[in-house]
Amino acid sequence: MPRTLIRGGTLLTADDARPVLHDGYLLVADDTIVDVGSGTPPTDGVDEVLDASGMLVTPGFINAHTYLCMILGRNLGTDRSLLHWLSEAQVPLALEPEDYEVSMELGAIENLKAGNTTICEVFFSPHYDQEVDALAARVLDRTGIRTVFFRCANDESFFEGFVERRDEIVVRSERLIAEVENAERTAIGVGPLVPWGSSAGSFRDAVEISRRHGARIHLHTAETPEYNALVRERTGMSNVEMLADVGALGDAVMLNHCVHLSEQDIALIADSGSHVIHDPTSNMILASGVSPVPRLREAGINVGLACDGPACNNAQDMIEAMKDAALLHKVTSGEAETLAAQDVFLMATRNGAPSIGLGSGLGALAEGHLADIVMLDAQTPHLTPMHDPLAALAYSARGADVHTVLVNGRVVVRQGEVTTLDEPAIRARANERAARARSISGV
Ligand SMILES: [Zn+2]
């Protein structure tokens, strides 16, 4: 069992018992944190020592909603609202099955280098008949990142070529679950992609698959007024009422965005124990609106945080997402106390864990937690001086400050470089494939 010691840093633990530890240390055995403290660390039987002097050490960030499958469309068709951006720029992009390999690799590099140790990939593709989902999940597993891979599809309406039959969705989802059953860091989740594109039966299928296999459910919820209008047209209900009606709310469910909600919707979410994921940056870029996050938290709902995809953010930096969340809700409420540094830090770490079913085992630097750990170089002008390490992380740090990253106890970023992948080769390949897809589609 390999033992790694991290010593000498300022630990932001996300553990209420001791939120900040100066001159702290962490002992990792295999994939688990086994000791946390400050001062002189135990060194017996340690295989590797990582020196964190002058660094901030935090739990790995949980980027609870992204689309690496769209990364080749980054910065294409920007400055448009969601449905225009999708239909005019992203959906027409002529991706081929092999493009998902480089997309996952590039996305994993970007996330890992920013300290995002867990991603929730909301995968969708017109090439499901060629098992691109299995390809993408396998590639992600190989990169060393922790993934919940949501295989998403609609059985009634979405863009041409993207609709699967209801029975195909069930069969193919279960096949994928069986394929990655023994993966160490990859789990499969399910859920219709858009709330206005699936039959009630297909929503019920997702719930059934979730029950049968313990799979998580991902649902886009009340993202824009247009989405809400489309759901109401089909069902006569609000998005959340529709989900309650088909039995698709509950502790295994993560509701993404939740921007346009009524008080009744909020009560339904709170009663069901569903989790909400907040995507402040993409909500601002696409002008989708402001999610009532402070109100949701007040109602007792667990709220995690995400970047959303690299094509609609247009980056993968959870530190930036923390700052965006804090600023968005301060300016909306008119109160500087709204979403303090501590709040957005916990949203990016500890609060993400229960939304993926790892409630008390991930997202904090605490004994017994999985060893997903980030070390940030604080010897920089923008982190000097450091009166308040939490505020420094939330408001002054950047993803590019990340120096070392461990996932499941394994070092996957060392001195700012990903150890599991050949970044220059992957960037070159991504440029080449993106140019090809764009020239064919004429976007
Ligand atoms: Zn989304």
Describe this structure in words.
- With 443 residues, this protein is of the alpha/beta class.
- Strand 2 (20-29) and strand 3 (32-38) form a beta hairpin.
- The chain has 2 domains: 3-59 and 361-418, Urease, subunit C, domain 1, CATH 2.30.40.10; 61-355, Alpha-Beta Barrel (TIM Barrel).
- The protein contains 15 helices and 17 strands.
- 36% of the residues lie in helices and 23% in strands.
- Strands 1, 2, 3, 4, 5, 14, 15, 16 and 17 form a 9-stranded mixed beta sheet that branches. A 4-stranded parallel beta sheet has the order 6-7-8-9. It has a 4-stranded parallel beta sheet with strand order 10-11-12-13.
- Helix 11 packs across helix 12.
- The longest helix is centred in the C-terminal third of the chain and has 19 residues, at 423-441.
- Residues 65, 122, 220, 256, 308 line the site of zinc ion.
- Zinc ion binds at residues 65, 122, 220, 256, 308.
